[in-house]
């Protein structure tokens, strides 16, 4: 969600919860909605996993001031490997201060920032990683889209993680043409290029409630930014269709109503009158590895809550193993992930090579450096 001016969301006239809709005489009662609860989370996997978390913090400076341990607590609680932050609202000078504060509690982590140069204290994203990525890039590589600090891509041996804060259509839908005709198209083209190389995990605020399950009051919000038919169609057609991404939360919880954003001004969180705007999307090659995708609605500090995804097996290969047999297993695993759906030439030859070499501890250490 963007700034307060773009958040003119219509609230229902009453404050009753969604599952309290009364039966009306002569009309068929609405089906009772199943609301998401953290009790729906799966038990931790017995094997090794990778966890990517994302959180629109609605000003990192404010979060660190008011809840200085919130980021550390989230990382430790979820045993996260990557943390994506949106709406950091930092200036370049603020990045140094924020990173120092975060490193005081997460000393071994690496931090990367992409802040807005178009407007101070606006937008901005950050990515924190337990393991140093092979490469980090900023933006889409198109100047028109890269002045607002909306995207960071971290490349690892076998996959990419993208932290993204998608532009809001704006109050009065003043930016909807830019969103639909320019940003969405450019973002999809960028993703297509990455998918030709390695699987991709997208984590961030996508500023779209894709279905009626993703918003508390759909009928009165059809013209609200983030829920217009045009934005929802673009989301489904480009991200889920053309690019073939899987909405990990929806795949894990079909038919469940869940929210990640609540308007502070109307105290919407107290009524659970929210929107699901924050997502973890995975390319099809990773879909079978998703162990869980979860929300943390009880985590305070922002008008959004954290979202996370847990994938079975370390995505960068079984690095702790040694010996020829273990190396062969690592090679087979990496190759299996690399082959696109339906067969074809593996697209992650570099990852396979690293997995084969993992029998050498020095090579493994270099991969993690």
Automatic annotation (TrEMBL):
Similarity field: Belongs to the DNA repair enzymes AP/ExoA family.
Annotated Endonuclease/exonuclease/phosphatase domain residues: 54-304
Cofactor, how bound (note): Probably binds two magnesium or manganese ions per subunit.
Residue positions binding Mg(2+): 56, 87, 205, 207, 303-304
EC number(s) from the headed UniProt entry: 3.1.-.-
Organism: Elliptochloris bilobata
Entry annotation: catalytic residues: 165, 205, 304
Region (Disordered) location: 1-32
Cellular compartments per GO CC: nucleus
GO biological process, one term: base-excision repair
InterPro entries, alphabetized: AP_endonuc_1, AP_endonuclease_F1_BS, AP_endonuclease_F1_CS, Endo/exonu/phosph_ase_sf, Endo/exonuclease/phosphatase
Swiss-Prot/TrEMBL keywords: DNA damage, DNA repair, Hydrolase, Magnesium, Manganese, Metal-binding
GO MF terms held by the record: DNA binding; DNA-(apurinic or apyrimidinic site) endonuclease activity; double-stranded DNA 3'-5' DNA exonuclease activity; metal ion binding; phosphoric diester hydrolase activity
Protein name: DNA-(apurinic or apyrimidinic site) endonuclease
Site positions (Important for catalytic activity): 278
Entry cofactors: Mg(2+); Mn(2+)
Site positions for Interaction with DNA substrate: 304
Annotated site, Transition state stabilizer, chain positions: 207
């Amino acid at each position: 969600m963007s700034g307060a001016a773009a958040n003119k969301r219509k609230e229902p006239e009453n404050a009753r919860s969604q599952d309290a809709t009364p039966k009306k005489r002569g009309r068929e009662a609405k089906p009772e909605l199943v609301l998401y609860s953290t009790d729906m989370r799966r038990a931790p996997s017995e094997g090794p996993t990778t966890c990517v978390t994302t959180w629109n913090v609605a000003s990192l400076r404010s979060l660190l001031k008011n809840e200085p341990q919130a980021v550390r607590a989230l990382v430790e609680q979820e045993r996260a490997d990557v943390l994506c932050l949106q709406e950091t609202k930092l200036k370049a000078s603020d990045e140094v201060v924020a990173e120092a504060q975060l490193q005081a509690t997460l000393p071994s982590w690496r931090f990367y920032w992409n802040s807005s140069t178009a407007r101070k204290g606006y937008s901005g994203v950050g990515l924190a990683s337990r393991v140093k990525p092979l490469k980090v890039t900023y933006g889409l590589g198109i100047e028109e889209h890269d002045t607002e600090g909306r995207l960071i891509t971290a490349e690892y041996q076998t996959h990419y993680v993208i932290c993204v804060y998608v532009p809001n259509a704006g109050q009065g839908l003043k930016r909807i043409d830019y969103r639909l005709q320019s940003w969405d198209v450019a973002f999809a083209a960028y993703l297509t290029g990455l998918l030709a190389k390695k699987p991709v995990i997208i984590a961030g605020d996508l500023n779209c409630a894709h279905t009626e399950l993703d918003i508390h009051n759909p009928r009165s919000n059809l013209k609200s930014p983030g829920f217009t038919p045009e934005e929802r169609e673009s989301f489904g057609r480009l991200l889920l269709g053309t690019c073939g991404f899987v909405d990990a939360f929806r795949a894990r919880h079909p038919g469940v109503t869940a929210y990640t954003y609540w308007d502070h001004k109307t105290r919407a969180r107290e009524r659970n009158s929210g929107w699901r705007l924050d997502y973890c999307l995975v390319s099809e090659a990773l879909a079978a590895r998703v162990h869980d995708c979860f929300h943390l609605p009880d985590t305070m500090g922002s008008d959004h809550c954290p979202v996370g995804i847990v994938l079975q097996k370390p995505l960068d290969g079984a690095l702790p193993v040694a010996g020829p047999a273990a190396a062969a297993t690592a090679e087979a695993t990496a190759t299996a992930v690399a082959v696109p759906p339906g067969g074809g030439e593996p697209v992650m030859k570099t990852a396979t090579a690293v997995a084969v070499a993992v029998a050498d501890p020095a090579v493994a250490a270099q991969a993690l450096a």
